[in-house]
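Worked example 4.2. Below are the chains of a multi-component assembly; read each line carefully before continuing.
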Amino acid sequence: MHHAKTNILTIKTPEGIVFSLGLAGPVVRFMAWSVDMASIAVIICVLNFFFGLLGIISRDLAVAANLLGYFVISIGYGIFTEWYWQGQTLGKRLLRLRVMDEQGLRLQISQIIVRNLLRFVDGLPAFYCVGGLACLISRRAQRLGDFAANTIVVRSPRIDVPDLDQLLEGKYNSFGDYPHLEARLRQRLTPRAAQMALQALVRRDELIPQARVELFRDLASYFKPIVEFPPEVTDGISDEQYVRNVVDALFRPAAPGRSVRASGLEDSR
Amino acid sequence: MIIDLQRFITEERRYWAELEAVLNELERKPAHKLDLPRLERFHYLYQRASADLAKLMTFSAEPNTRFYLEALVGRTYGEIHETRAKPHRLAPLHWFFVTFPRTFRKHLRAFGVCLAAMLLGGAFGAFVITADPAAKEVLLPFAHLQGDPSERVAREEGAQEDRLAGGKTSFSSYLMTHNTKVSILTLALGLTWGIGTLIMLFYNGVILGAVAWDYILAGETPFLLGWLLPHGAIEIPAILLAGQAGMILANALIGWGQPIALRRRLRQTAGDLVTLIGGVAIMLAWAGLIEAFFSQYHAPVVPYSVKIGFGVFELVVLALFLGKSGAKAGCETPPAGLKADRQQEQIQDCGISSV
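Applying the procedure described above to all two chains together yields the following structure tokens:
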């Protein structure tokens, strides 16, 4: 595992397989916590209404039920939701975060309880100052409760495949005449570089013209040496068209049903 | 290297789906155990998915498949490499009568440290009250404790009406929730290497010692015992147990004499912390009921002998419970330093279930 401060936790299994988990930072965690606080407030308001009805029988009983209800919800909300949704509260679900065991092992109920009880210290003196600071300093973005419970909070973003037909505008891709070079391109490019090219195309209309020209010039000059296509393919096309061809070669499904979305994998993730 | 990605995914997808189905089954039913052929198949599917992920890592254009496989391999890795016992079905009686007292006995030294801190605080409180009676106003945060003890006793014993009438249930709830919060904070302050926990216990000891000595000096010992013992016999040990949990956490952080890594030490203590604080919450619920419905009634309504007798009885039962309950020859919970596999063996022999 990495030992420097990073927003990625990489776990290497004994089988030699490496998988990475994106760590959630203090800001996004604070936002999730704010959603949870709002949820707790709503639940308590609803309970107050129903417990208030007990006042018809006994005012003493109604006050007692309210006190116990507030206590149980404020302490138990995080414990119950993280247990029930396997590491997620409502706020974490909305912001696509998840509590996980630090070593990638199964999250245990004792870990969930400990990390939630230790909020009492993380919340000191107010607004999670101690927890936020610990999260900033910790190399795995852990608050003190996470540290004691051996847990981390990871990001689990949903990856949407962009509409390639619209993106590539149905233009002819001359790279397709050289399938062996396209295969080499797919093999040599890193996933990060492929995503970089795709994102540049997705966001191209957000850029001012000068920045757009410079970005695609830089990207094209980065891709060109990786796999050299014959001059008759590359001559006379713009840098943006070059990058578009690269994205087309990397992402366009070869046949119907090839894409991950079509295979149904995305839904099961 | 993958030459034909579509063919690769088409061929491998059924294995991934099969692995995912087994994983879902295991996660849905934690107590379920796979038989040997299915276990072997599960392991084979894990290895196959791992190999697929390794192949896909070299392929740039399939981020979704890669993320999916990473999640799948990650989940399976958690199942296969997890060595801690799976949570059993809920067995609250076994947990309360066996696991809880055993956990207490397993960490007696931590409890001793907490008791010493509280006694020290008590002695300090008594000393301050003796040396400077005027300090009572600073030392005691409750107005009804700052006056003359004899005057209060006369007022309580001469009361014609029940001052808690119509408010006992809410008072009891307040006591339960407040004391449980204080206990959780006492545990959580173990994160300060135990310093915060010890300060909390010392501070509580100071208040207790000051009040007790003030009433003893005023010759109101029967009232004091009758007032405090019925609920204090449970409440004070409960706070000490919360402190014990805090010291266990502190000990795991400091790691004196434990030749194991910090993360493993913390991993080993999580279950004990939860057990202790769960037990503390139950004790405080009982103490809250007794304080609201019994402790506040004094002679002549309830004779002091009855109140003191009840408090002593509770204390004896608690001592027997914590000291003896769940004890079976050779079956005490293994100490934290024991090797994990030996611990597991011993736990299975004795039928100890985890929370």
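Take a moment to check your reading of the output against the notes. The longest helix of chain A spans residues 26-53. The longest strand of chain A covers residues 18-23.
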